Amino acid sequence: MNNKFNFNVREQRNLTMLVDFYELTMGNGYFDKGLKDKIAYFDMFFRRVPDSGGYCIVAGVEQLLEYLNNLKFTDDDIDYLKSKNTFSEEFLQYLRDFKFTCDVWAVPEGNPVFPNEPLVTVRGPVIQAQFIETMILLTVNHQTLIATKANRICRAAGDRPVMEFGSRRAQGYDGAIYGARAAIIGGCSSTACTISDKMFNIPAIGTMAHSWVQLFDTEYESFKSWAELYPDNCVLLIDTYNVIKSGIPNAIKVFDEILKPMGKRPNGIRIDSGDITYLTKHCRQMLDEAGYEDCKIVISNSLDEHIIRDVLEQGACIDSFGVGERLITAKSEPVFGGVYKLVAIENNSEIIPKIKISENDEKITNPGFKKIIRIFDKTSHKALADLIVLNNEKLDESKPLTIFDPVHTWKRKKLKNYYAKELQVQLFKKGKCVYDCPSVLEIKEFSKNEINKLWSEVLRFENPHSYYVDLSENLWALKQSLLHKYTKSYELQD
Amino acid sequence: MNNKFNFNVREQRNLTMLVDFYELTMGNGYFDKGLKDKIAYFDMFFRRVPDSGGYCIVAGVEQLLEYLNNLKFTDDDIDYLKSKNTFSEEFLQYLRDFKFTCDVWAVPEGNPVFPNEPLVTVRGPVIQAQFIETMILLTVNHQTLIATKANRICRAAGDRPVMEFGSRRAQGYDGAIYGARAAIIGGCSSTACTISDKMFNIPAIGTMAHSWVQLFDTEYESFKSWAELYPDNCVLLIDTYNVIKSGIPNAIKVFDEILKPMGKRPNGIRIDSGDITYLTKHCRQMLDEAGYEDCKIVISNSLDEHIIRDVLEQGACIDSFGVGERLITAKSEPVFGGVYKLVAIENNSEIIPKIKISENDEKITNPGFKKIIRIFDKTSHKALADLIVLNNEKLDESKPLTIFDPVHTWKRKKLKNYYAKELQVQLFKKGKCVYDCPSVLEIKEFSKNEINKLWSEVLRFENPHSYYVDLSENLWALKQSLLHKYTKSYELQD
């Protein structure tokens, strides 16, 4: 129902100039060399899952779509670029008249994805397809990083809700705003970030800070005032002075004196410091003895998936978690290393695959215009493998499918009784948006379902099973031929 | 000269709703309890320097000022808040008519600062002073984190310029935009982020990506085209295929064939992968032998302060560094833990100091309305110590000053021949902005000078000397008396 509030906030920002300067010097170069309309194909993909996890959750597609829809150089932008004395007048005129005409495909948000899969594929005039590199990477890298981290934390918490509390420690305003969005996609139940609720219709919640308690002469008075004000949703922060000696007795007193006569039950108590296991066990006991078995215990003190698993294993009595800085910055591994690589060009409508060589084997790219196919078992509906194939390849699902490891090619596996699903969807057709983004809460639900289709071995925190991401015979052969060709050209030089 | 481009970009964004929801539930509470105009004092401070460094560089004050200047709830905001069914109609009317009336002080950007020092102090009606918590923390935490990290990296690079290249891996758009700003404050020479140049008049630069090279049939042709286009600023990326066998020979060939006949000298070559020490030594030798002793070597491959120190010690031949993901996310420690705590209230114009107790000694706050005094040696002009004092305290610089460790109080030091400087300046007087922000390049210059006033022992990377941040006698005594008072109140309960 909040959707009516979204429009203003989201339409006003034009991020066209958020671009690495070299995209512009190259753009000027493509223009000058008559190459601007050369058709190029780029893939955005990543090489490894953060925190040695088994999969990532892709996120940020909606913002990518908004960015591409809003691409436009203002007079101000052109004046600024002119002042750099780097660009030709003709190129600046081209930017003034800029019109986005690319095709764009992406894996919809919430999908579990794996290394080397093209999350975004762009086809179009190289001057355009190159220009949008910075924002594609920035947008998808950031939200995928946070959704993936949130998903780890939420899995550790099991059925207990996880609230995103990190705005104050986020890396910049959008780190908070879109970080909260990605956290919900990853599985969080709510956020403290109000503007994200307004923009994305995701539930924002909050109660009190220590300063509320400090402002009153006594902790008891501060609790009393709060209970009078919010009898239907009374959560008290009990660690301003001393949890056991002061906080919990005062809370129980207020529940008894204020809520009980009103016929209301307390919602919860929150603890933000100290030994979680010890304190929650004591609090649970004291609450139960006072007749408040239904009063929830909320914890929020520099948590992450490891601490959550630890304290739950130790028998801590916790009903929900507020997770801040370690989620909103993905502290344990705060960089998502997505890259954007040229994989093909067109010469007279013929697709010419391109490869990026590297002495580091992992950095060699998969050439050509490709798509991803996910193979599911017909009986269990579990995902068996992903196959990266050339875009024009078709899979005959009625026949057995043999997949093989792209490095150790003798490792082969025959799949029967399967069905296949293409992962990418088209976002833009010749520059026109053709995709309707689902709501964030729909994406969250979708994501949960898709993750449930992974075997539990892939979900494991420690040393998860490496999900199969193989290449089709055709793609594998193409890659080998390009590698041999380049090796040969060096041999000739030696 | 670019300042004329800034205005539009910076004025359009109203971040009023970027606020933790609990600031609003508390605001509603202060309003309901008749406490909204109660005068409160809050300090923003941090507890430890990231990466075990000796100091931080404060940044973000200009954005804090813009935020406070733009505070305003739109009709949309109010409609949204109403839909939450949490706030009284009177409180919503108060927000509709919201007018900021606080006093705000801050340490100007670029200053080296230390744990427990109030970087920002707010005095005003508690409902307002509380509301701005989220944005004060978010703004100053983020930019201080990045400026501090950039400063470490730039110190490792010594006189060699460091370029900020991290936009694509930043945590959200503002992570890139304001991260670039903070990186310049910390000492970077330039950024790849175009919009940051436009907004803050900081130099944006860039050359080519691997895709430029890949688009041509041969590396040689791609270099030739570039040199023809940018003969005055020709930097070639030489690692698309093979640096030694292909990249550097092709670059030299193009310098000879294209630039030399035009009477131009090459600007540089860039290497983005591989063994930096080995490759740069080889490239230097080949360039020198070809007569291009002045051609610079630029390196850009997952760098940070440790790798930069290492390769320079190994004799790598590098003229400048492009630093990306490890700077823009402060990867080694991506959270800056600034906090915002109630330190006093006023009762009938009398200041009543407040303290936050914790079983963790470091988390106990310094109570009262305070300021920071930095003590300099009159002869060397080096900074000797900082003193946190009550706001009404005056220092008689003609008399010796005895400072003492606030925990081990027997550790005392007598200072003579010194002068003192107050660090905080006033940003807002009763809600009116009274501070003119310097430009980013001015802040960068100022910061360099202030860091030069620290002893080299404080600048050390490993185990730096802990700079003295002591409390005045009065403040120390006040803190002790509040601690004893609270301890006593628990004893009575036992």
Automatic annotation (TrEMBL), chains A, B:
Keywords: Glycosyltransferase, Ligase, Phosphoprotein, Pyridine nucleotide biosynthesis, Transferase. Pathway: Cofactor biosynthesis; NAD(+) biosynthesis; nicotinate D-ribonucleotide from nicotinate: step 1/1. GO terms for biological process: NAD+ biosynthetic process via the salvage pathway. Residues 370-479 form the Nicotinate phosphoribosyltransferase C-terminal domain. GO terms for molecular function: nicotinamide phosphoribosyltransferase activity; nicotinate phosphoribosyltransferase activity. Transiently phosphorylated on a His residue during the reaction cycle. Phosphorylation strongly increases the affinity for substrates and increases the rate of nicotinate D-ribonucleotide production. Dephosphorylation regenerates the low-affinity form of the enzyme, leading to product release. Residues 162-345 form the Nicotinate/nicotinamide phosphoribosyltransferase domain. Residues 17-141 form the Nicotinate phosphoribosyltransferase N-terminal domain. Its EC number is 6.3.4.21. It catalyses: 5-phospho-alpha-D-ribose 1-diphosphate + nicotinate + ATP + H2O = nicotinate beta-D-ribonucleotide + ADP + phosphate + diphosphate. GO terms for cellular component: cytosol. Pfam families: NAPRTase, NAPRTase_C, NAPRTase_N. Belongs to the NAPRTase family. Catalyzes the first step in the biosynthesis of NAD from nicotinic acid, the ATP-dependent synthesis of beta-nicotinate D-ribonucleotide from nicotinate and 5-phospho-D-ribose 1-phosphate. This is Nicotinate phosphoribosyltransferase.
